[in-house]
């Protein structure tokens, strides 16, 4: 006996909740600027953006794409690392930086292609497919670096272009932030404005309906996972340029926060969809909280606890009034 | 006998044709009626042994190549090396049983590795502060229970997606661990630790026996009490469980709490094994997930099971140990684990698509 | 149960229906879809509270029923849905939640299985493969397990809701034997079925429902199935079906020698512009699979498909959509409309290229077209941005059709388009079908509702065991003839005596 009469209870969450994350961010800014005098200074804010936010933002943008398509990409960190590894190796081999960057992104595309094959080709759940990729990527890094030793670009021969990617500015704004802006606008246009974004939305929320409307479901998924890994590999290139080295497994540090940011970001949308502005707010919130806690004298360890609690509260906010997830 | 023949006697009004709605393509009547799941059963039957065969093949391979592989000492070593992973895997298995196999919406506990780290830190810190074994153990287990309870609360009462709720809890655990250890290795020495490192009956180290004991308790509970039956029903077909009058939330919450408790136990074992609480417990997360999912391959029904998880943990332990003995780079281990996960999931999802739900 | 009234929004599902069942009898309940049978049963199960009317058991009036209260009163339900854990064994599924009944003093799996086997043998005389999992069983076997489960609770009144829909004849015989035994033990059964021959065979009394009311109480031993059928059919139904006045034009879709073994083989037909071609067949006849293959969902393995005279390959839904083929799937809520999306997003989903410029979506154009479609199809909604979730079933179905109108599809494959919508919405959908035909669209309508097929189609094809067996002209055909062709593959001239 069908019970469809009984499930009319699904009500949209009150619109008030959409302001939860912006409000939390505002509150964080106000509280910390009162508690820590150095917090609301230009140099601190630029420092937070460059050091805490930029790389996390790029990885989170990649994550948002896959979350919007109804999945997750646990191997974003692997794409970061493989991008970094390919980039640094090519530079050490004496190739120009732009070719190295291209090879780095291609390494990301390769990682994405592997995921796409598993997810779109073999219909494996994204969570487990990308988990497998993560493991294989880990092995790959161990094998190429003799168990996880960093690979340094020799100090004497650092190309100027590499230093520019790592520390340069354009019009007074650090290059990393330009990159974040370009990627964010690009991803936002793709998800929110483009025809492809609509297809992603349909595939992510109602894959069956998408199929029954003639949409190329597999191709959409394949593209999303390739794009996600390619974007993540850009973060890998930035990291390497920053430290003139490839440090194995450094990408995984961004994984959990990027998932957190993408899901915190969904609370910004009336229909709880993954969206780029929300993700960026999530990244900012996490970045400013850890910076603020640092400035008021909490050590790194308590910052972890603080940001964990914060993610928890944000989730609570995002899920309150949501009754259709069970 | 075909399905239609029963209709032949029933010439009636036009409505006779209104048939039950099939979500999927209905199987052709002949196949459905004459071969009750035989072809599928045979294939599944083969796969049900694939996991065990793979384990035996690996053991045989190492036993032939390395004579010392099958000595009691080495077996004990494998067992104690697998103990922490195995105990955490058992915890995750419980969560998977009551949560169902859908990774995003179903049950998952990402906080287990964090619980392990926090529990180990609690144990070692209290030990350093001069507390006795009983107090240390009690506080450590209480820590695990508290983390489990927080997860349970978030998932059942607050209805946060398990993936996200346990992710946040994991961050909190990792932070608290750092607060306690200040990112240093906290040594620990206690009679209990010595006792755990001793060889017990059958020359097996006590740490390994704790894993076996935990498995035994869970396996017996799940098999010989209604709890097991109901827990699988809660995860496998929640509507059926609800229709049978089972309180779903109680089982889901219970699985997270017991998983947290097992995280506490794993913390004590890890301190005993390393004689210290060390950082880096977060690296355990993915192997734990791999273990619980690989465990499905050892189950006759391709579902998560505690026995399967135990075998999977030992399997991975034997793999790492054998490579070590063969002087093969341990760098391959992760890659092989990854490939195994993909193979298992590929096979089971293929089977699941074939074995259509009613 | 007396004078029950229940309204859902504008729909009056129950309109003063009464049902009186004598203790210790098997009572049949028959009626068309939408006659109110299932709502009546939901009231009895405590799932739906009636707006008016009362319920008595054993002469004592009862307050409003809850599922729990119904259970306490010993009312058990056997539904079409099989609520069994797929990865459980038969014994486990049977005793879930009442494990003590299967194995006292601890849970012994072997004991559960033996006891389950004993019960299945006793009630139905069948034995299932040892150690079989529910997912390995046929739907019929699962149904038997489900019925046995209900019997464990030792109920006083058992409601069977279409229990035989997926059973073989031997299993049906066992079920009827079991119902006979229940009756001998003084239990009361309420038996709902579309198969009047079954009703005739086991029921002591029959209540016929129509339009939310009980219209007749008959004794099946003295009243023939033909008479019961007449009582069930709503005479007003003829007004439901508007005839379109288009004359079929050039062939739009022609299929020859199409095969996808074992589902169907050697299917050939031609569908013309401005034509409504009906298609019907029982579960397993291959009609459903044929329709799916025409939309590229499970492509045919052999044969030729031509659209507008050009041979095409329909390898995926995308390929079908490119050929201007539209699909209205049966499972509307899962496959037809995207409940999580808004009206606008739903309606343009199949025609995004038409609403985008340089890869970006032109929302203004979208809104304009969607507003037009809402007006055109008279969809009751607050506007283009409204959530589809909030619409009624009929309006949701119109959204699906609007999606394909926006695509300017020329061939429409409709799979049970009126399942689960009320009579008024049905009439609107029929008018829509007629209008599509008048505008030159070619329509293939798969339906199990024979009145519907006779009412709206120009021709009707019948499939039986994977083959097209006959073609009928509605004006020269009765629903009984269609039914005969579906159940036996023959074109019976006079079906009154076949039973």
TrEMBL record, chain A:
Transmembrane segments: 20-42, 49-70, 82-109, 116-141, 161-191, 219-239, 251-268, 280-298, 304-321
CDD domains per the UniProt record, alphabetical: TM_PBP1_transp_AraH_like
Primary localisation category: membrane
Keywords: Cell inner membrane, Cell membrane, Membrane, Transmembrane, Transmembrane helix, Transport
Topological type in the membrane: Multi-pass membrane protein
A Pfam family matched in the record: BPD_transp_2
Record InterPro entries: ABC_transp_permease (IPR001851)
Keyword Plastid: no
Protein name according to UniProt: ABC transporter permease
Organism in which the protein naturally occurs: Ancylobacter moscoviensis
From TrEMBL, chain B:
Chain ranges passing through the membrane: 46-63, 75-96, 108-126, 132-153, 160-180, 200-222, 251-274, 306-325, 331-352
CDD domains in alphabetical order: TM_PBP1_transp_AraH_like (cd06579)
Keyword terms: Cell inner membrane, Cell membrane, Membrane, Transmembrane, Transmembrane helix, Transport
Compartments, as annotated in UniProt: Cell membrane
Pfam family, one: BPD_transp_2
Location, primary (coarse class): membrane
Membrane topology: Multi-pass membrane protein
InterPro entries tied to this protein: ABC_transp_permease
Name this protein carries in UniProt: ABC transporter permease
Native source species: Ancylobacter moscoviensis
């Amino acid at each position: 006996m069908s019970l469809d009469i009984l499930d009319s209870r699904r009500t949209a969450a009150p619109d008030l909740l959409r302001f939860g994350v912006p409000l939390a961010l505002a509150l964080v800014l106000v509280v910390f600027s009162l508690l820590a005098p150095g917090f609301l200074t230009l140099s601190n804010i630029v420092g937070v953006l460059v050091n805490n936010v930029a790389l996390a933002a790029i990885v989170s943008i990649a994550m948002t794409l896959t979350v919007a398509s109804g999945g997750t990409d646990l191997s974003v960190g692997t794409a970061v690392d493989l991008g970094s590894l390919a980039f640094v190796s090519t530079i050490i081999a004496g190739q120009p930086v732009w070719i190295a960057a291209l090879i780095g992104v291609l390494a990301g595309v390769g990682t994405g292609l592997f995921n796409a094959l598993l997810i779109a080709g073999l219909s494996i759940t994204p969570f487990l497919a990308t988990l497998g990729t993560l493991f294989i990527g880990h092995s790959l890094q161990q094998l190429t670096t003799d168990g996880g030793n960093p690979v340094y670009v020799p100090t004497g021969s650092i190309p100027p272009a590499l230093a520019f990617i790592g520390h340069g500015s354009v019009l007074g704004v650090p290059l990393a932030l330009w990159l974040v802006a370009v990627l964010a606008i690009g991803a936002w246009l793709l998800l929110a404005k483009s025809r492809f974004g609509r297809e992603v939305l349909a595939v992510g929320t109602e894959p069956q309906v998408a199929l029954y409307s003639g949409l190329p479901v597999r191709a959409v998924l394949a593209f999303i996972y390739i794009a996600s890994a390619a974007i993540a590999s850009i973060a890998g290139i930035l990291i390497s340029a920053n430290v003139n080295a490839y440090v194995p497994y450094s990408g995984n540090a961004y994984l959990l926060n990027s998932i957190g940011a993408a899901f915190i970001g969904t609370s910004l949308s009336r229909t709880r969809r993954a969206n780029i502005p929300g993700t960026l707010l999530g990244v900012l919130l996490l970045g400013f909280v850890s910076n603020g806690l640092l400035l008021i004298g909490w050590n790194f360890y308590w910052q972890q606890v603080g940001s964990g609690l914060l993610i928890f509260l944000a989730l609570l906010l995002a899920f309150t009034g949501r009754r259709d997830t069970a | 006998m075909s399905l239609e023949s029963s209709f032949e006697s029933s010439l009636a009004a036009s409505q006779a044709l209104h048939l039950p709605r099939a979500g999927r393509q209905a199987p052709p009547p002949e196949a459905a009626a004459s071969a009750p799941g035989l072809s599928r059963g045979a294939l599944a039957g083969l796969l049900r042994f694939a996991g065990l065969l793979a384990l035996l093949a690996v053991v045989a391979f190492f036993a032939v190549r390395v004579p010392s592989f099958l000595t009691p000492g080495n077996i004990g070593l494998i067992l104690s090396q697998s103990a922490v992973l195995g105990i955490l895997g058992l915890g995750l298995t419980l969560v998977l049983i009551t949560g169902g196999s859908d990774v995003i919406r179903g049950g998952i506990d990402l906080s287990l590795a964090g619980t392990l780290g926090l529990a180990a830190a609690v144990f070692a810190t209290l030990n350093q502060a001069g507390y006795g074994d009983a107090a240390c153990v009690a506080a450590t287990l209480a820590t695990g229970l508290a983390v489990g309870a927080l997860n349970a609360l978030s998932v059942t009462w607050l209805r946060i997606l398990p993936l996200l709720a346990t992710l946040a809890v994991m961050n909190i655990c990792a932070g608290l661990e750092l607060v306690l250890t200040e990112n240093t290795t906290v040594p620990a020495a206690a009679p209990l630790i010595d006792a755990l490192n001793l060889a017990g009956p059958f020359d097996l180290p006590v740490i390994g026996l704790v894993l076996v004991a935990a498995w035994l308790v869970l396996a017996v509970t799940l098999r010989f009490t209604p709890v097991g039956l109901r827990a699988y029903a809660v995860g496998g077909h929640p509507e059926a469980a609800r229709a049978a009058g089972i309180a779903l939330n109680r089982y889901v919450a219970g699985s997270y709490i017991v998983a947290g408790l097992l995280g506490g136990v794993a913390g004590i074992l890890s301190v005993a094994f390393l004689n210290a609480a060390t950082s880096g417990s977060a690296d355990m997360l993915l192997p734990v997930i791999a273990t619980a999912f690989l465990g499905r391959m050892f189950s006759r029904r391709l579902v998560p099971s505690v026995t399967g998880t135990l075998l999977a943990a030992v399997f991975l332990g034997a793999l790492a140990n054998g490579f070590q003995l063969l002087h093969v780079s341990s760098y391959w281990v992760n890659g092989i684990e990854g490939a195994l996960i993909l193979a298992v999931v590929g096979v089971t999802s293929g089977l699941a698509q074939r074995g259509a739900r009613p | 149960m007396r004078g029950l009234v229940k309204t859902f929004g504008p729909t009056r599902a129950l309109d003063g229906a009464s049902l009186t069942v004598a203790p210790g009898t098997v009572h049949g309940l028959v009626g068309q879809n939408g006659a109110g049978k299932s709502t009546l049963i939901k009231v009895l199960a405590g799932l739906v509270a009636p707006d008016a009317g009362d319920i008595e058991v054993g002469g004592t009036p009862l307050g409003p029923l809850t599922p729990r209260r119904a259970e306490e009163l010993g009312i058990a339900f056997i539904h079409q849905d099989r609520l069994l854990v797929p990865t459980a064994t038969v014994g486990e599924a049977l005793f879930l939640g009442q494990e003590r009944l299967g194995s006292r003093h601890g849970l012994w799996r072997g004991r559960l299985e033996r006891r389950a086997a004993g019960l299945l043998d006793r009630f139905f005389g069948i034995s299932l493969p040892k150690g079989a999992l529910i997912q390995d069983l046929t739907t019929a076997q699962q149904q038997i397990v489900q019925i046995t489960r209900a019997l464990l609770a030792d109920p006083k009144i058992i409601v069977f809701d279409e229990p035989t829909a997926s059973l073989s004849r031997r299993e049906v015989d066992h079920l009827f034997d079991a119902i006979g035994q229940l009756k001998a033990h003084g239990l009361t059964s309420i038996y709902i079925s579309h198969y009047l021959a079954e009703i005739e065979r086991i029921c002591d009394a029959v209540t016929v429902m129509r339009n939310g009311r009980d219209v007749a109480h008959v004794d099946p031993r003295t009243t023939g199935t033909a008479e019961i059928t007449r009582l069930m059919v709503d005479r007003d139904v003829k007004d439901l079906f508007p005839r379109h006045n288009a004359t079929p034009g050039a062939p739009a879709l022609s299929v020859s020698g199409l095969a996808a073994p074992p589902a169907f083989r050697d299917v050939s037909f031609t569908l013309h512009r401005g034509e409504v071609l009906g298609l019907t067949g029982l579960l397993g006849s291959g009609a459903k699979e044929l329709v799916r293959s025409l939309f590229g969902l499970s492509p045919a393995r052999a044969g030729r498909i031509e659209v507008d005279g050009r041979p095409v390959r329909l390898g995926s839904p995308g390929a079908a959509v490119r050929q201007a083929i539209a699909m209205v799937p049966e499972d509307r809520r899962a496959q037809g409309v995207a409940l999580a999306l808004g009206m606008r997003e739903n309606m343009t989903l199949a025609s995004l290229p038409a609403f985008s410029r340089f890869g970006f979506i032109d929302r203004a154009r979208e809104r304009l077209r969607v507003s037009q479609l809402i007006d055109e199809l008279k969809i009751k909604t607050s506007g283009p941005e409204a959530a589809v979730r909030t619409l009624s079933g009929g309006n949701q179905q119109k959204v699906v059709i609007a999606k394909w109108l926006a695509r300017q599809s020329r061939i429409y494959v409709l799979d049970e388009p009126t399942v689960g919508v009320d009579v008024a919405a049905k009439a609107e959908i029929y008018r829509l079908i007629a209008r599509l035909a008048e505008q030159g669209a070619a329509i293939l309508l798969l339906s199990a509702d024979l009145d519907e097929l006779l009412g709206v189609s120009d021709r009707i094809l019948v499939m039986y065991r994977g083959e097209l067996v006959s073609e009928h002209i509605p004006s020269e055909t009765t629903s009984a003839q269609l039914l005969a062709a579906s159940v036996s593959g023959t074109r019976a001239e006079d079906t009154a005596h076949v039973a």
